[in-house]
Design a protein that fits this description.
The protein is mostly beta strands. The protein contains 1 helix and 47 strands. The strands form 11 sheets. Strands 37, 40, 43, 45, 46 and 47 form a 6-stranded antiparallel β-sheet that branches. The longest helix has 16 residues. The N and C termini lie far apart (78 Å).
Length: 640
């Protein structure tokens, strides 16, 4: 029967409105092109859900396409959307029919999403934006690359920095005053001196006609611009103040691009003890004339929001309590103090203090005769001024020289410690002619053997374990890992044990103290290769495979629904549809790409083998029609 004209018209109108109800770019094949910078605003109102999301319970997605010349990390931000968003990025090399997910994010800036992925210039990527639990609304899509604008500039230091590339970068505001510069990349530099700073691209590794401009702050005053100085390459010198941060942009003559190195040199007056390597010597008593004026901040402070620090070295004159303070009336600013051991190349923080005597600082630590300690003096919030430093050393035995003063330690890595200045406790050592001992207390975390290791000490160690102070010895060891000691002792959860560490023939030195429940010999191994895998599907298994530890199975490369399972090891079973290996004794398959195994802290599990495997449901058709499942290899975790 032929349709009447009226029916044809009604059908056409219905189809028109049905099509218009879907958002633009509702599927990958209709993806909208976007580029670096601000894109949008867009909306996902009226869109459908293309397929299952690996994060966020995402849905109602719309699609975008990105191709750029830039290679490196690319950040996509939906911050500013008016609903709870989700974003996922795919490698589109194989087109919409062979998408490979390279990242997914739900919440980053509140309920909105931000995702950073690595991209390759010239490769097509697809971006889908949806909503948590299929929520809809309006959103921006801002795409940025590191240093494309002043606000995302990377730090450079004195010397040669790079190599870098400006390929794929945009041209920032303001307009360049020299060389028709463009395609610029931004950097920050904190001056290490007061004087002339020179920045240049004159390296033989720079392969295009460059331009350089320097600003006092982002959006601030230009301090100079240069096009050609060393041939077609650029060099610019400007006056700098120590500790001040400047903004540098490097571009290309009329937008040229390529690879470059950026050399920075500061020729001026600096602070000699601005870093540990230039530390001034201080001694017991009052040290006068100290200042942190014009200093920079060497590294983050663990206390005080300290900054603008200068450095001093001190050699302890006794075994005892060393006190360093800035408590005299000569102090003109709010100080902070931190003390280190280990030498400038391997600093280990010992103590840090902000306020002790009003806004002055005082720090006390146990010093060892003849050892060098490094003291850094800074200002709260970066304050600067003048002060004096008083140092005293009061002889005393180490706090843990006897069992009654034992220092509590925990499961895992403890220390480093030392046994300098210690005496030899009773009872006499049953192994290694031990002596010069120090004591530690440990509360067992489970019913199991516990391994106590000193491997990595810098002297010939001894170790002994007791069930109480003046109690029973549970074991003693001299040499295990070379001249260092290790002992395994059966412990009961909740009981306190006492560990004494000494030296063969009363030797002294530094040592770590590592405590591991179980044997510490747990293993993770790929034991059975899958007969039914495909694409980039794989499973990574990482973590601590010992009792009390945790192991994670992470699935990647799946195009459909991710499944992960853990189970007790058993004979592999072939799937009925195709020869896919699965775990015969596991029924705990879960819809997830990541699954943790938390191992109970109980010695009964030592030696138990467990297996884990991942699967891709409705993804790669490794099993063939009508089933489109694929399985990863099987990993076996043997608990130690």
């Amino acid at each position: 029967m032929q349709m009447t004209s009226k029916k044809l018209l009604a059908t056409s109108v219905a189809l028109l409105f049905s099509t218009a109800a879907f958002a633009q770019g509702d599927e990958c094949t209709g993806a909208l092109a976007v580029g670096i910078g601000a894109n949008g605003p867009f909306t996902n109102v009226g869109s459908t859900t293309s397929f299952v999301w690996p994060c966020a319970a995402g849905g109602n997605d719309v699609w975008f396409s990105y191709i750029g010349g830039y290679t490196g990390p690319l950040t996509l931000s939906l911050c500013g959307a008016d609903y709870d968003t989700a974003v996922e990025v795919f490698d589109g090399t194989g087109g919409c029919g062979a998408l490979l997910s390279v990242g997914c994010n739900d919440d980053f800036c509140g309920l909105q999403s931000t995702l950073t992925v690595n991209v390759t210039g010239g490769t097509q990527y697809f971006i889908r934006v949806g909503g948590f639990n299929s929520r809809t609304g309006n959103f921006p899509l801002d795409i940025s690359i590191p240093g494309d604008e002043c606000a995302t500039a990377a730090a450079v230091v004195n010397g040669v920095n790079g190599p870098f590339s400006n390929v794929g970068y945009s041209t920032s505001a303001p307009a360049w005053p020299c060389g028709g510069g463009g395609t610029d990349r931004w950097f920050t530099y904190q001056a290490t001196c007061t004087g002339n700073v020179t920045v240049d691209t004159c390296s033989a590794n720079t392969n295009f006609d460059t331009t350089i401009e320097v600003f006092d702050v982002c959006g601030g005053v230009s301090l100079g611009c240069n096009d050609d100085s060393c041939g077609l390459l650029s060099s610019l010198t400007f006056a700098a103040t120590i500790g001040t941060t400047y903004q540098i942009r490097v571009g290309g003559f009329f937008g040229g691009s390529g690879n470059f190195e950026l050399n920075v040199a500061c020729a001026g007056v600096g602070v000699q003890n601005d870093e540990c390597a230039g530390a001034f010597v201080v001694v017991d008593g009052l040290n006068t004339g100290l200042t942190n004026a014009n200093a920079t901040t060497s590294q983050p402070w663990p206390c005080a929001a300290g900054g603008n620090d200068v450095w001093y070295s001190y050699v302890a004159t006794c075994c005892g309590n060393v006190t360093v303070d800035t408590c005299t009336a000569a102090r003109t600013f709010d100080t902070a103090l931190e003390v280190f051991t280990g030498g400038c190349a391997g600093l280990i923080s010992v103590v840090c203090n902000d306020d002790s005597c009003g806004l002055g600082s005082s720090a006390t630590f146990y010093g060892v005769t003849g050892l060098t300690y490094y003291i850094r003096l800074g200002g709260f919030g970066g304050g600067t001024g003048n002060c004096e430093m008083n140092i005293s050393c009061t002889p005393a035995a180490p706090a843990n020289d006897e069992c009654a003063g034992a220092i509590p330690v925990n499961t895992g890595a403890n220390g480093p410690f030392n046994n300098f200045c210690s005496s030899t406790s009773a009872p006499a050592w049953p192994c290694g002619a031990g002596g010069s001992d120090v004591w530690f207390s440990y509360v067992a975390t489970c019913n199991a053997p516990h391994k106590i290791e000193l491997c990595g000490a810098d002297y010939d160690t001894t170790v002994e374990v007791f069930d109480a102070c003046n109690g029973n010895s549970l074991g003693c060891n001299d040499d295990f890992c070379g001249l260092d000691s290790t002992i395994s002792v059966a412990m009961t959860a909740g009981n306190t044990y006492f560990i004494r560490v000494g030296g063969f023939g009363s030797g002294q030195g530094n040592f770590p103290l590592n405590i591991t429940p179980g044997t510490g010999a747990g293993t993770i191994a790929l034991t059975t290769a899958s007969q039914c895998t495909g694409g980039a599907l794989s499973l990574s298994v990482t973590g601590n495979p010992n009792i009390g530890g945790s192991v994670n199975s992470a699935l990647s490369g799946n195009l459909g629904l991710g499944f992960v399972t853990w189970g007790f090891a058993g004979a592999p079973l072939l799937a009925p549809v195709c020869p896919c290996i699965i775990l015969s004794v596991s029924t705990d398959w879960q819809f997830t790409n990541s699954l943790n195994l938390n191992i109970p802290c109980d010695g009964i599990f030592i030696g138990t083998p467990l297996e884990t495997q991942g699967a891709d449901l409705f993804g790669v058709p490794a099993c063939g029609f009508p089933v489109t499942n694929a399985f990863t290899d099987i990993f076996t975790v043997t608990i130690g």
